[in-house]
């Protein structure tokens, strides 16, 4: 019997973590991808090659969408798709910071069904299957129940507090930052932070796994227009993302 999809993702993330840690802090070769797409390291590419090979062998009928491989329209005609980011937070990785992750998810009909986010340098392994809850290192996690938006601790880049992005003024939140979008989402799912937001074009591979981990932990996740994120889109991109418990999510949306 083939292993369930989540078990396959867990195994792949562990292998990816081993490759990443072999390069971490050892001056891996780095290139600029151009077009404001940021850097890519030899570790990103080695992990991507391993994941592509492993997934194609295990699930040849699944499509694959990866940050580090040229996209193909063939995935649009498959029933299920792997959505992968070999290293989310490459800048942190190459600067010897620990906040980088391998983010792996499976989508079916535009919905994420299984997901893992692994930060090997911090020994944090988040996982979820639809309808089964979310875990951190095997223990159940859940969103916090804060109700006051003022002073709520949100993970966001500095540009997200620009007044031009909001109807009148930015919301009265306390901003924090982590370089990996996947990790930001997981920190909200874990209850360590109150929310996460990004109000710019967002790539599917950055948020697919974290989205399911959040929703399985009780977090409300939408695009900035309030719509449910959908995956395996032709452009692999969505209109930002906001994640928080339902009460804070509703309050924040009133500022947009």
TrEMBL record:
InterPro entries xref list: Inositol_monoP_metal-BS, Inositol_monophosphatase-like
Listed Pfam families: Inositol_P (PF00459)
Transmembrane regions: none
Keyword annotations of the record: Hydrolase, Magnesium, Metal-binding
Top-level lineage group: Bacteria
Family: Belongs to the inositol monophosphatase superfamily.
Protein name: 3'(2'),5'-bisphosphate nucleotidase CysQ
């Amino acid at each position: 019997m083939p292993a369930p999809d989540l078990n396959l993702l867990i195994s792949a993330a562990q292998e990816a973590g081993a490759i990443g840690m072999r390069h971490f802090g050892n001056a891996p070769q780095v290139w600029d991808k151009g077009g404001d797409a940021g850097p890519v390291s030899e570790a990103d590419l080695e992990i991507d090659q391993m994941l592509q090979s492993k997934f194609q062998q295990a699930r040849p009928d699944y499509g694959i969408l990866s940050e580090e491989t040229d996209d193909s329209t063939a995935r649009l005609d498959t029933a299920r798709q792997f959505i992968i980011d070999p290293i989310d937070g490459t800048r942190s990785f190459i600067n010897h910071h620990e906040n980088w992750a391998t983010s792996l998810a499976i989508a079916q009909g535009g919905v994420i069904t299984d997901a893992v986010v692994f930060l090997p340098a911090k020994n944090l392994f988040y996982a979820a299957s639809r309808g089964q809850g979310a875990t951190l290192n095997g223990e159940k996690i859940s969103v916090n129940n804060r109700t006051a938006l003022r002073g709520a601790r949100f993970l966001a880049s500095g540009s997200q507090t620009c007044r031009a992005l909001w109807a009148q003024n930015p919301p009265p939140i306390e901003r924090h930052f982590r370089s990996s979008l996947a990790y930001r989402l997981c920190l909200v799912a874990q209850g360590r932070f109150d929310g996460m937001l990004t109000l710019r074009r967002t790539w599917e591979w950055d948020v697919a796994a974290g989205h399911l981990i959040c929703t399985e932990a009780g977090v409300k996740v939408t695009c900035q227009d309030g719509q449910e994120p959908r995956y395996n889109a032709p452009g692999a991109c969505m209109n930002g993302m906001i994640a928080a418990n339902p009460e804070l999510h509703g309050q924040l949306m009133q500022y947009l």
